[in-house]
TrEMBL record:
Residues 60-249 form the Brix domain. GO terms for biological process: ribosomal large subunit assembly; rRNA processing. GO terms for cellular component: chromosome; nucleolus. Its main location: nucleus. Residues 1-44 are annotated as: Disordered. SMART domains: Brix. Keywords: Nucleus, Ribosome biogenesis. It comes from Ictidomys tridecemlineatus (Thirteen-lined ground squirrel). This is Ribosome biogenesis protein BRX1 homolog. The keyword Ion transport does not apply. Required for biogenesis of the 60S ribosomal subunit. It is found in: Nucleus, Nucleolus. It comes from the Eukaryota. Belongs to the BRX1 family.
Length: 353
């Protein structure tokens, strides 16, 4: 569009005069394509920055909270998970008398579509629920071998809020229930891209391995120099109990046949110790009975005296004279010491006078 200006006295529009070009401007225009080529070469060699502007599309939000009666170790584990997952939210502890279906309403109030719920029983057993709220599925685990970030003295470290890589054991793809758990773990533990609280870096990895019919969780730092792994923590073991079709309930999709409840485990341990005690008592009773039984007298065997050589009989000597008393050297030394002490006391008293 051509620039125009108005006359002061009239309404006609007149084109604005073009500015005159100087010699310096002509030289700069001639050199501009050379500079443009240099800038393009520099941009090719430049490494793009890690921060890239994008739209936050994955609106996954995780609610992490627990029931009343948890111990300090569980509380620290829950805080570590909240710190490692920037897309998580917290809530107050839930009363143990309330039913688990109430958690779906809490998730709806907090605008969360996934939930990690820690359920404590008998102040020593810890259960973890992983649920897709409100439609399901959900899985219940027994948590064992808990080690938190504050407890472990490990050298690994990572940026707070950075996005993790998820590494799964190949055994997750072999069985159907493990593939379902894999998808549930991916949706819960993966930090959404471009999340406002997340950092656009990938410097640690979550590993899920299957061993002894249990899922082992580890957190490792990725070192940039040689891509080596250094453990950060926390670490824990998940023993699968059941998988439900709904959220915190519903029809059972899978039940672990290898699962043994903590009460049964403690009962077996007590029975083993009781069996050891019973064995000791039985051995003592058998020994008492053997002592009370009469001894069996075996008949004399004439062949026993074949190799017996009779000893020479010594003459009997009768001592008519009383033997001399033995000299007690200790008593003699005491008497000599007392005598010398008395003599020294007399000498010292005479010199004093």
């Amino acid at each position: 569009m051509v620039a125009t200006k108005r006359k002061r006295r009239g309404d006609l529009a007149v084109q604005a005069k073009k500015p005159k070009r100087n010699e310096k401007d002509a030289k700069s225009l001639s050199k501009s394509p050379v500079k443009a080529e240099e800038v393009e070469e520099e941009e090719k060699d430049r490494i793009p920055g890690p921060v890239c502007k994008g739209k936050w599309k994955n609106k996954e939000r995780i609610l992490i909270f627990s029931s009343r009666g948890i111990n300090f170790r569980t509380r620290h584990l829950m805080q570590d998970l909240r710190m490692l997952m920037p897309h998580s939210k917290a809530d107050t502890k839930m009363d143990r008398k309330d039913k688990l279906f109430v958690i779906n309403e809490v998730c709806e109030m907090k605008n969360c579509n996934k939930c990690i719920y820690f359920e404590a029983k008998k102040k020593q057993d810890l259960y973890m629920w992983l649920s897709n709220s409100p439609h399901g599925p959900s899985a219940k685990f027994l948590v064992q071998n808990i080690h938190t970030l504050a407890e472990l003295k490990l050298t690994g470290n990572c940026l707070k809020g950075s996005r993790p890589l998820l590494s799964f054991d190949p055994a997750f793809d072999e069985l159907s229930h493990y593939s379902l758990l894999k998808e549930l773990l991916i949706q819960i533990f993966s930090t959404p891209r471009y999340h406002p609280k997340s950092q656009p870096f990938v410097d640690h990895v979550f590993t899920f391995t299957i061993l002894d019919n249990r899922i082992w969780f580890r957190n490792f730092q990725i070192i940039e120099e040689d891509a080596a792994l250094v453990e950060i923590g926390p670490r824990f073991v998940l023993n699968l109990i059941k998988i439900f079709q709904g959220s915190f309930g519903g029809p059972t999709l899978y039940e672990n046949p290898h699962y043994q409840s903590p009460n049964m485990h403690r009962r077996i341990v007590r029975s083993i110790t009781a069996a050891k005690y019973k064995e000791k008592q039985q051995v003592k009773d058998v020994q008492k009975l053997r002592k009370k039984e009469p001894k069996t007298i075996l008949p004399h065997d004439p062949t026993e005296d074949v190799f017996v050589t009779p000893a020479e009989k010594k003459p009997i000597e009768i001592q008519w004279v009383k033997p001399e008393p033995k000299v007690d050297l200790k008593a003699r030394k005491k008497r000599i010491y007392k005598r010398q002490r008395k003599m020294n006391q007399k000498v010292n008293s005479g010199n004093a006078k």
